[in-house]
């Protein structure tokens, strides 16, 4: 069996406002944790938009920063846990690539995620259940 002090796992948590990562060894000791804010647009009341690119960049930043802080060799990371809030990345049906959710012209392609706080989606999602 591997040495639990020299075997590591990465944990990633993506929330509405930030991405976070940590590294633990297999004894359960927390060795490092890093958080990075996720950019959120709020173009009008109760409308929120985010970016798949920005979310992924924030995750990568946090994991790399944890590795740097601890000096852990990435080859010694043998597990990863990943948790994320319920957000909707909007993809093109024909290309499977993210598309803008920023109306009315939908040209701001970076804004392609509808995060959970966006009330108009919450209400639309629950309307069918109410009937």
Short description:
The chain has 131 residues and is of the alpha+beta class.
What order do the strands of the largest sheet run in, or round the barrel if closed? 3-2-1-6
Query: Per CATH, what is the topology?
Result: Nucleotidyltransferase, domain 5
Stretches where pLDDT is under 50 for at least 5 consecutive residues are none
Describe the biggest sheet?
A: 4 strands, mixed
Query: Taking Cα atoms only, what radius of gyration do you get, to the nearest Å?
Result: 18 Å
- Helical content stands at 10-25%
| Architecture (CATH level 2) name | 2-Layer Sandwich
| Secondary-structure element order, N to C | EEEEEHEEEH
Average of the residue pLDDT scores: 88
Question: What does the model show?
Answer:
The chain is α+β, with helices and mostly antiparallel strands and 131 residues long. The protein has one domain (4-130): Nucleotidyltransferase, domain 5, CATH 3.30.420.40. 24% of the residues lie in helices and 32% in strands. It has two helices and eight strands.
Summarize the SSE layout with pairings.
Layout: E1 8-14, E2 18-25, E3 30-37, E4 41-44, E5 47-49, H1 52-70, E6 77-84, E7 88-89, E8 113-114, H2 119-130
Parallel strand pairs: 1-6
Antiparallel strand pairs: 1-2, 2-3, 4-5, 7-8
List keywords for this structure.
alpha+beta, Nucleotidyltransferase, domain 5
């Amino acid at each position: 069996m591997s040495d639990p002090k020299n075997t590591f796992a990465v944990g990633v948590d993506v929330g509405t406002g930030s991405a976070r990562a940590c590294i633990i060894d297999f004894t359960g000791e927390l060795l490092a944790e890093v958080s990075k804010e996720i950019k959120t647009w709020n173009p009008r009341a109760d409308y929120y938009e985010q970016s798949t690119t920005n979310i992924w960049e924030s995750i990568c930043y946090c994991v790399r920063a944890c590795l740097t802080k601890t000096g852990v060799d990435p080859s010694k990371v043998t597990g990863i846990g990943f948790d994320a809030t319920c957000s909707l990345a909007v993809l093109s049906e024909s290309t499977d690539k993210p598309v803008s959710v920023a109306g009315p012209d939908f040209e701001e392609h970076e804004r392609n995620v509808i995060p959970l706080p966006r009330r108009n989606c919450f209400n639309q999602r629950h309307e069918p259940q109410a009937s």
